[in-house]
Amino acid sequence: MHRNDRMIIFLGIIIVVIALVGAAVGGSPKVKKDGEDEEDDYTKWPIKDSDVKHISGSSSENSDETVIFNITDKYVLRITYELNWLDEADTTGLGDYTNQPDSFNFTVLTPWEEAFSSDNVFNPQGNAGLITETIEIPEEVIKDGAIGEWTLMIHCGECGDQTPRVSLGGYRDIQDTGNDWILTRYYEFHTNN
Question: Does residue 146 contact residue 187 with C-beta atoms inside 8 Å?
Fold first, then answer.
């Protein structure tokens, strides 16, 4: 036998011995089922609240505004959008006016191209208006379906004018041409961080 042949046999024996020792010390490697990985266990991770994001805007009567929120977290379970606006209050005294309510609604377009629409809501007369919509993320898209751009189309509908309680002395309606609003977004998601 040549020296090279003996060297190859010797190296082969060493490799076999190392493999046998490794198997004895570490046991056999875990065999994963098809599709199984560490991330499939995200349901056992704690649920965390996201940061709350606010966007302010203003709408004219019978107009639409588009707002985009970007989400980078995986495993989002539900996301909530709130639209707030404050209508003018009634006035008393000289120039006594009653203010009629304003209306808003919005539509949410998800990254997986499903749309959710709120009801059209009028604020209570002379007070704040609020629309709250919570979207439950479908189980089949929880892993990464919420990642990306969420587009909201805010619609300002009828804006009620201020009308004089008594139409004496030339008091006329004061036209309401729109309203300011604040859109708030927050969500819950599983995380192992």
Answer: yes
Structure tokens that stand for 77 in this block: 């379970």
Tell me the mean pLDDT in the region 113-122. Answer: 96
* H/E segment holding residue 92: none
Q: 37-50 as b/e, with b when 16 or more CB fall inside 10 Å?
A: eeeeeeeeeeeeeb
Residue type, 21: V
Q: What is the pTM of this model?
A: 0.73
d(CA 189, CA 74): 7
DSSP 124: P
How far is Cα 84 from Cα 104, in angstroms, rounded to an integer?
A: 9
CA distance 59 to 99: 18
